């Protein structure tokens, strides 16, 4: 029983193996036939493509042969045309008795001469018309600007008058043996003039800021009634600070008047100091406001950037507010200050070029010059003699300030009296005497002035202690 089952199992397995072998053989036969069929198809396709390429190549060769023939015929035709052209040129040269080059040169020469003549006549006419039109437009623009620019101008002097409650106050201003008036003049740097004018004291000084501080100081002393050297110094210091604040407000008001609201605070304060300065008798801050308005009107008339033109004209004289220790002209000093505080380069150039120390390169710079001239050239706007006088006093103070050990310098009595305050720890009595002699000699050599100049060197030592 067991043997029969095993035999049947083996027979079944052998049958399965035989079936698998037959299936494998059949698959291999089918696959080989299929591969042979595909290979035959590929060979047939390649044969057809090769035949197609051969036909195309034959057609291209035939076309190339036809093109070669056409090209040879064109070359022959071109050669014939060149021969005909050469023959025609030879016949023309024989008739005209000129070669081709000679004829061309003669023709070009005539055309060039005529063209140059026509161009010269046209350029002359255009230049003449442009000049005439430019002059007419410039006159119209300037006339329109001046008509629209209405401003007042009061000629300023170098004297400030202070009203006294009574003539008795003159004695208190002078003080015992003149100590109050000497202290006042020494602290403020102004000349006090007390004459027969009733209830009036005159303060004379070429520096308007210094004169204004002195005026306010004297008015406060008169109102308070206490007038002595210590009180004079105290009030003077306070009024100097007050004037600085007034300068800032004046600069802000002037900038807003011309429509500028983004000036650097330092530029605003510097502009405000021009409120107390004059140029040829014309108030500089008013002149700058007027120039700004004029530049704006000019810019509107000819279509320029109004804000840029106004800014350049408004700031063009800012250098006049700087101290005399600054080297260079006010135009260059002002331009450097504007550049330092971030003004646009076009504005800086307008400032430095407004007196032609640097050649103007922009239209805005020329507009600044025109606005400056419009403001300054009006009848009554300036007075030459005052400016010369102020410049002479500036020169006196500048020369004295350049000496070592000098602390402060005041030119008084219309420049006839120069008072030099020196530092006592740097200049002794002998050096002070030598300094006075050297300054007097330098004034004689470098300056031209009427009369005489008295040089006074003041060396003052102070000792201060506090009692507790």
UniProtKB/TrEMBL annotation:
Transmembrane regions: 6-30
Membrane topology label: Single-pass membrane protein
InterPro entries, A to Z: HD/PDEase_dom, HD_domain, HDIG_dom, KH_dom, KH_dom_type_1, KH_dom_type_1_sf, Ribonuclease_Y, RNase_Y_N
Keyword field contains Transcription regulation: no
Listed GO MF terms: hydrolase activity; RNA binding; RNA endonuclease activity
Family listed: Belongs to the RNase Y family.
The name this protein goes by in its record: Ribonuclease Y
Organism: Nocardioides iriomotensis
